[in-house]
UniProtKB/TrEMBL annotation:
Lineage: Bacteria, Pseudomonadati, Pseudomonadota, Gammaproteobacteria, Nevskiales
Annotated source species: Stenotrophobium rhamnosiphilum
HAMAP family assigned to the protein according to its UniProt record, in alphabetical order: LolB (MF_00233)
Name of the encoding gene: lolB
GO terms for biological process, alphabetical: lipoprotein localization to outer membrane; protein transport
Topological type in the membrane: Lipid-anchor
Name under which the protein is recorded: Outer-membrane lipoprotein LolB
Length: 199
């Protein structure tokens, strides 16, 4: 009786060990990949992104984008039409910026509203710094759908929807190459030409 109990205990211990080994060797899920990926993306505190875009739903207007993100949290964003026509430069932080457009300089603590009032469209500056990296902003809740490698396919946050259709290698990272940003009023399509100055 005693030997049978010992054998039963040994068998259970062995099975438990095998079960642990099976769990350890299970294929990683999209969520597992995302956990690793999001941790890496959060460490990107500076970059230079140069891109082409178009905005507008009925008659898209082409534009060039240049976003310089600095390690201190400030940024320098330049938005220009073809051949530099109608260039607007926004520098500062999402809460306090200086806007230079058509030879004039403005100070605003609500840059998204300023762009809406002056240009008839807007940029979601608070979230865009994170969204262009392919991750949600940490400042509010978001819904995301992932591909098998843990890259964001669709992101919904703060009334905006982003669809990522292509990624590219940038340094040691996989960062977006093609994506669009839209809400009920604005649709902005972006094609990233280059990523530089990554940590």
């Amino acid at each position: 009786m005693k030997s049978r109990l010992i054998m039963t205990m040994a068998a259970l211990t062995l099975l438990g060990g095998c079960a642990g080994m099976v769990r350890k060797n299970e294929p990683k899920t999209a969520e597992d990949h995302w956990d690793v990926r999001s941790e890496q993306l959060q460490k990107i505190d500076r970059f230079l992104m140069q891109a082409r875009g178009s905005y507008g739903r009925l008659v898209p207007v082409k534009t060039d984008l240049r976003w310089q993100q600095n390690a201190d949290g400030s940024f320098d964003l330049r938005v220009a039409g073809p051949f530099g026509i109608g260039a607007t430069t926004i520098t500062g932080t999402p809460d306090n910026v200086q806007v230079r457009s058509r030879g004039n300089t403005y100070q605003s603590n609500n840059p998204e509203q300023w762009i809406q009032d002056k240009m008839g469209w807007t940029l979601p500056l608070a979230g865009l710094r994170f969204w262009i990296l392919g991750m949600p902003s940490p400042h509010s809740d978001a819904d995301i759908d992932l591909d098998r490698e843990g890259r964001v396919l669709t992101l919904e946050q703060d009334g905006w929807t982003l669809n990522y259709t292509e990624y590219q290698k940038a340094g040691s990272h996989q960062l977006p190459r093609k994506f669009d940003v839209s809400n009920s009023d604005v649709k902005l399509k972006i094609v990233v030409d280059s990523w530089n100055d990554l940590p």
